[in-house]
Amino acid sequence: AKRTPGTSYTLAEKEFERGSSNMLEQEQALRAGIERGEFHLAYQPKVDAHTGALTSFEALARWNRPGFGAVSPLEFIAAAERTGLIAALGSTLLWQACAQIAQWHATYGSCVPVAVNVSPLQLLDPRFPQLVEQALEDHGVAPQWLTLEITESSAVQNLDQTVAQVAQLRALGVHVAMDDFGTGFSSLNMLRTLRLHTIKIDRGLIDPLPAPESIAVVRAICQLAQALHLHVVAEGVETTAQAEAARDAGCGELQGYLYAKPLSPHDAGQWLAQHTEH
Ligand code: C2E
Ligand code: CA
Ligand code: CA
Ligand code: CA
């Protein structure tokens, strides 16, 4: 697996698995981390495929576990899901993201939408739409500044519930994106039923670009998305060849290390400042 340059999760990952091998210990470590406010968000820019201008940020969870170092989000999100702490962790992160949106508005007088990742367990909680509404209200944030990234797997496994939750979230005015599109088994009909705003094409389909077969797949997804009035984001763009191929295939927004890795709130603010200058 590729790693962000300059960070290595490998050791902490193993520590978390080995040092906290049973669920009880993992649960205690996570619970303590949530209580102590050890979880933070990094913000990765997405850019307009044609102009290169900043369009939005994706908030990605980070845990610098004291004495252990950075733990991979894949590890601690999965552990939070196993131990039933994902609701608490997810709420903490949602509140942080809304606080950040409010702060950027206050500092720069404007903002771009911020996308928060939502675990299937969070999304399917009947109280989730109310939580989102509360988080926005607590920070005086208008709903159009918040996007929720949901995953294909939750939609496939619980289509009716997912459709109902997405409808409620839409009614609130937040945007909903399907993450990792192309890795799961969502049918084309499901995309129509869900009434999302955006799909994010998984890195696994972007990585092989500009191989001709991959271009054909990405183009077909973009044509479908266009017919359904969905925005398309290509994720994991690392080279200019991939960026050009994704843009030519019809992706409207691009995200990946080619533009920026996930940034601290301060560094993300610098992007925002440049974005709002002109
Ligand atoms: P994801 O939502 O698909 O996020 C994309 C991942 O790819 C992030 O890894 C990001 O840092 C990384 N990435 C971005 N651009 C590139 C690139 O050009 N090349 C490569 N190789 N990787 C790139 P990260 O931050 O380690 O997060 C991993 C996964 O953990 C996320 O995948 C998401 O499923 C989950 N996750 C992260 N934060 C949260 C959160 O707040 N809530 C939930 N429920 N899940 C989260
Ligand atoms: Ca995501
Ligand atoms: Ca993704
Ligand atoms: Ca992913």
Produce a short descriptive summary:
The protein has 278 residues and is α/β, with parallel strands linked by helices.
> What class do helices, strands and sheet pairing give?
alpha/beta
Helical residues, percent = 40-55%
The shape is: globular
Bound molecules: ligand C2E, calcium ion
Q: Order of strands across the biggest sheet? A: 1-2-4-5-6-7-8-9
Oligomeric nature of the chains: single chain
The parts where pLDDT drops under 50 for at least 5 residues are 1-6
Distance between the termini: 39 Å
Strand segment tally: 9
Helix run count: 13
Q: What's the mean pLDDT score?
A: 91
Largest sheet: 8 strands, mixed, barrel
**What is the beta-strand fraction?**
15-25%
The rounded Rg comes to 18 Å
Order of helices and strands: HHEEEHHEHHEHHEHEHHEHEH
Keywords: Membrane, Transmembrane, Transmembrane helix
Protein name: GGDEF domain-containing protein
Organism: Rhodoferax saidenbachensis
What does this protein structure show overall?
This protein has 278 residues and is of the alpha/beta class. Helices cover 51% and strands 19% of the residues. It contains 13 helices and 9 strands. The protein has helices at 10-19, 23-35, 73-83, 86-108, 120-123, 128-139, 152-157, 159-172, 188-194, 203-206, 212-227, 240-249, 265-277, and strands at residues 39-48, 54-65, 69-71, 114-117, 146-151, 175-181, 198-201, 231-234, 253-254. An 8-stranded mixed beta barrel has the order 1-2-4-5-6-7-8-9, surrounded by 5 helices. β2 (54-65) and β3 form a beta hairpin. α2 (23-35) packs across α3. The radius of gyration is 18 Å and the shape is globular. The protein starts with 9 loop residues before the first helix and ends with a helix. The relative contact order is 0.13. The model is unreliable at 1-6 (pLDDT under 50). The structure holds ligand C2E and calcium ion (CA) (3 copies).
